[in-house]
Amino acid sequence: MDSEFVFPEPVFRREVLKIRHALKAFDQLSETTQSWSKSAKLRFVARNSITKPEGYEIVGKIDSLPPVEEWWFQASDAFGNMRNALDQLNHNIFHYVSRVEPGHLRFPMATKGSQWRDWRKSAHAAGFPAWLIARYKRFQPYTTHRPTLTTLEKITNKEKHREGVTSALSLTRAEFGPSQFSVTPMLPDDFDFSLAHGDFPPTIELSSTEFPITTVSIPGHSILLSETELSANFEFRFTLRIDTEEIPLESATNLIVGDVLWATLHIIGRETATTKMPKNFDLSLESDAPIVPDSTNTQVAK
Questions:
Q1: Given strand 210-216, what is the order of strands in its sheet?
Q2: Helix (H) or strand (E) holding 222
Q3: How far apart are CA 276 and CA 234, in angstroms?
Q4: What averages of pLDDT result for each successive group of 10 residues across the chain (302 residues)?
Q5: What residues form DSSP beta bridges with 232?
Q6: CA distance 126 to 123
Q7: Is residue 253 within a helix (H) or strand (E), and if so which, with residue range?
Q8: Can you name the residues that pair with 282 across neighbouring β-strands?
């Protein structure tokens, strides 16, 4: 074996099938969430504020909440299949190289040099050649400074222990049409509207069928208006919260999937690129009919 070596298909066949299964699940989830977002019956209403009688508020109203937990179960299964595929690939390569049946092995995801040196020592003892160890090293988070594989590890570990991961559907953009209201005392013609108070949070979690968007007030004045439904353009985003970090699911999925595919195919010897993510990923197997899905804005040959 040398640096050009490509592992035989039995070493990675089931793992590629798991990754492909995860890609299909992510595709289906993306279609489901986008379909829900397009059909969601969401209204925005401007009315006198309950908390600030001198101002007015904009609230969102939705007929029914999305099945966020069900969507998360789908995403969690797909992430789990990807992590399991990496772990099992590592197990299979260890067995192929050393001819010894190892115990439970996990794919190395070293965030520090000391972690990598510990793994490299055990790999060397198992008979891993230098070129194969180098393939692994190229995708270690401490080497790449990309958080994608460690994010995958966090998601799967915390979900396994039922802690730390929550999911939500958030309103990420809302542009409202005009509304009519009166202000007392009247505002001067040269009034500086930057003095009006009204903050829009960057994301608004849809945890209730009625939720606040913003409250607008003008110091020293009262705003009066009849309850009015506003025209609006809006967008949703499905997010994951890991500890205190909030991650948009779609972008996290694309980045994680890209790194998992790249690492898998580079380690087995199919992909030689080391510095720039390839545009095409070859996940084909000998028994396949030609099918080309696309889950990561890259072409994946199957």
A1: 210-216, 56-62, 42-48, 228-230
A2: strand 222-224
A3: 35
A4: 88 96 94 89 90 87 89 92 95 91 84 93 92 94 90 84 74 84 86 74 83 87 88 87 81 92 94 84 84 50 46
A5: 176
A6: 5
A7: helix 249-268
A8: 301
